[in-house]
Write a structure and sequence with these properties.
With 189 residues, the protein is mainly alpha-helical. The chain has two domains: 100 residues, RNA polymerase sigma factor, region 2, helix turn helix motif (Rna Polymerase Sigma Factor, Chain: A); 87 residues, Arc Repressor Mutant, subunit A (Orthogonal Bundle). The chain is built from eight helices and no strands. The longest helix is centred in the C-terminal third of the chain and has 29 residues.
Length: 189
């Protein structure tokens, strides 16, 4: 058993034994990453914090039933976080009464040249936010969290070919949305 997996097994066993210090160690090690994933999927820091906390609560609740020798804690927590974020996005959509991606407010560039980099980042976030949930998750895990396709596929509980197809569709959708954005700005000049 690899060292990381062995350390995960010990930590999960301690959490299963209801050792609060073990949960605190897991939080210290994983909470920031879980928050980042949730934030990039939801675009809201408070909701991302809620998701990261919920993922840790799930660890506390599920630890007695987990097979610590056969699971890796980091990927398990990432999968839980992605699933919770997707669920939250679905709830948002249901409450908004829309099935399609909502129209975005006009995000015309500001006159100040110093804000150009911030605008590009905002555009990228908006375009990613416009993707379907699973495509958004694929982009976040691959490009923001720098996970290998195989690891990201495992987190999303997909085989590698299906994940790569999903990622390809996500990149194509982003490219099309970006080209539409550029064409719209060109027409506005």
């Amino acid at each position: 058993m690899p060292a990381t997996q062995a350390a995960d097994a010990v930590l999960v066993a301690r959490i299963a034994a209801r050792e609060e210090q073990a949960l605190a160690e897991a939080i210290a090690e994983h909470a920031a990453l879980l928050h980042r994933i949730a934030y990039r999927m939801l675009g809201d820091a408070h909701e991302a914090e809620d998701i990261a906390q919920e993922a840790m609560l799930r660890l506390w609740d599920k630890a007695p039933g987990l097979a610590p020798g056969r699971m890796r804690l980091g990927p398990w927590l990432k999968r839980v976080t992605v699933n919770l974020a997707i669920d939250r996005l679905r709830v948002r959509r249901r409450h908004s009464g829309e099935d399609d991606v909502p129209e975005r407010a006009d995000e015309a560039p500001l006159a100040d040249e110093a804000l150009a980099a911030d605008e590009e980042g905002a555009l990228a976030r908006a375009l990613i936010a416009g993707l379907p949930d699973r495509q958004r998750a694929a982009i976040v895990l691959t490009y923001y969290e720098d996970l290998a396709n195989a690891e990201a596929a495992g987190i999303m509980e997909m085989n590698i070919k299906a994940f790569e197809s999903l990622l390809h569709r996500a990149r194509a959708a982003l490219r099309k949305a970006f080209e539409a954005q550029v064409a719209g700005e060109g027409g506005a000049s």
